[in-house]
Specification:
The protein has 425 residues and is an alpha/beta fold. The protein is built from 17 helices and 13 strands. The strands form 2 sheets. The chain has an 8-stranded mixed β-sheet with strand order 6-8-7-9-10-11-12-13. The chain has a 5-stranded parallel β-sheet with strand order 2-3-4-1-5, with helices on both faces. A hairpin with a 4-residue loop joins β7 and β8. The protein is globular and about 70 Å long.
């Protein structure tokens, strides 16, 4: 079977292929493509000349392995590989099906000669025993659903026709979502049904088996509320008030627990506030973004797109896929949609809007917070399809080019932008 190569992720992982000192952990929402990514890694190793008997691939969600539930059973599957000389490559998909897997993974890592790759679809994978016993001995690669760039690339890979108008193609991506499997279904109704099935699967496999939710109907109301209000400024207090107006009474600590469950299951991602003057995180209000926009459209029959939060969600997930830490920025009374920090401790400031062309006040609203930032890190205004503007040395990009062409938010990108250069000269 030919696999679509997610090059942006493979490039990050390749440097660790032959490292038996750290465990490679692929995390991400269920059905985002972790398994295919891991199979692609195995294929690349084969292409390098690694013998088949040196590649041990265990998919614990598949027939023949579902009965593997204990550390002893898992150990028995791997143990014969000890007799093979040289480096072995051990892949374990959905390893959290085995309670106590941490001891086994650590045992074979300590044995040496095993380059280990594991996947899991919830944050529980990196909590408890794995985090405490393997501190400094694992590296996490968080996998998102398809970005707009990958969506277009995968359609070409599958021989599917793409809309020559990039803005129309972006709207299609928004409505269909980025789950790779959804591209197999030509009808929108089938794509929505698939997204709904993913939500149910997450509850059954990633939530119900691991945490006790006493009142499932209330939990689902909280889930639906957060999904329907993604990208909105939220606090426990205003969520409690909104739910109460809908007739849902819930304790503050229960709400907090339910939100954490949704976050751990990677249905939502919390974006906290960051004060741009003090360089400190702020408590209280935050925003929640969706692992995939199809979660929203699967719960709603309305196809109208609210571009404000939708474009924010797309930019947020794309930045996370590039490895940025992302916060909501505040400078005085002004808000900046995103403050991004790279692994090299470089910052970028980003405003996202459907358009800045409505009137001068709309343009000022998006540019003013960035103009208040006095440091020299890159600053971006990102829109849907506006003519490119030049103002204050701030880089203006449309999301179809920025993400569709795989650009970044780095210093080099800002310097290379002809629009930014012209506005500074």
């Amino acid at each position: 079977m030919r696999l679509f190569k997610r090059e942006d992720y493979l490039e990050k992982i390749r440097g660790f292929y032959h490292d038996d000192g750290v465990i490679k952990v692929l995390t991400g929402v269920r059905r985002c493509g972790k398994s295919c990514l891991m199979q692609t890694i195995a294929d690349e190793l084969r292409a390098e000349g690694i013998a088949e008997d040196h590649i041990i691939y265990l998919d614990l969600d598949r027939y023949g392995f579902r009965s593997v539930k204990t550390p002893g059973q898992l150990e028995a599957l791997i143990e014969p590989a000890l007799r093979i000389d040289g480096m072995k490559y051990l892949f374990i998909d959905e390893i959290k099906n085995v309670e106590g897997f941490e001891e086994v993974v650590n045992e074979f890592r300590a044995e040496g000669g095993f380059s280990i790759f594991i996947t899991g679809s919830s944050s529980y994978l990196l909590s408890g025993e794995l985090a405490t016993k393997l501190t400094g001995r694992y590296v996490e690669f968080e996998v998102q659903t398809l970005s707009f760039k990958e969506y277009q690339e995968m359609k070409r890979f599958l021989g599917q026709e793409a809309d020559p108008n990039p803005v129309a193609e972006l709207d299609r991506y928004i409505l269909e979502g980025g789950f790779p499997k959804a591209l197999d279904y030509p009808k929108m109704a089938d794509k929505r049904a698939y997204a709904s099935s993913v939500i149910r699967e997450i509850f059954e496999k990633d939530i119900r088996r691991r945490v006790k939710v006493k009142n499932v109907s209330v939990f689902n109301r909280v889930r639906d509320y957060v999904i329907n209000n993604f990208g909105a400024t939220a606090s426990l207090t205003n969520i409690l008030s909104d739910l109460e107006r809908q007739g849902v009474r819930i304790k503050r600590e229960t709400l907090n627990r339910y939100l954490q469950i949704l976050e751990d299951a990677k249905i939502i991602s919390r974006c906290t506030r960051f004060d741009m003057k003090s360089r400190k995180s702020l408590q209280g209000e935050q925003k929640y973004y969706l692992a995939d926009l199809s979660f929203y459209f699967a719960l709603n029959t309305d196809n109208r797109i609210n571009y404000g939060p939708v474009l924010e969600n797309i930019v947020y997930n794309y930045a996370r896929s590039l490895g940025y830490e992302v916060s909501v920025g505040r400078i005085g009374k002004l808000e900046c949609d995103f403050v991004m920090r790279s692994s090299e401790m470089e910052y970028a400031y980003v405003q996202v809007a459907m358009t800045i062309m409505s009137d001068r006040s709309t343009e000022d609203r998006e540019y003013r917070p960035l103009e208040q930032v006095r440091d020299n890190w890159p600053k971006f205004v990102i829109t849907r399809s506006d003519p490119i503007q030049q103002r204050s040395g701030i880089v203006h990009e449309n999301v179809t080019e920025l993400i569709g062409e795989g650009r970044t938010f780095g210093v080099a990108q800002a310097i290379a932008s002809p629009e930014a250069n012209r506005s500074q000269n």
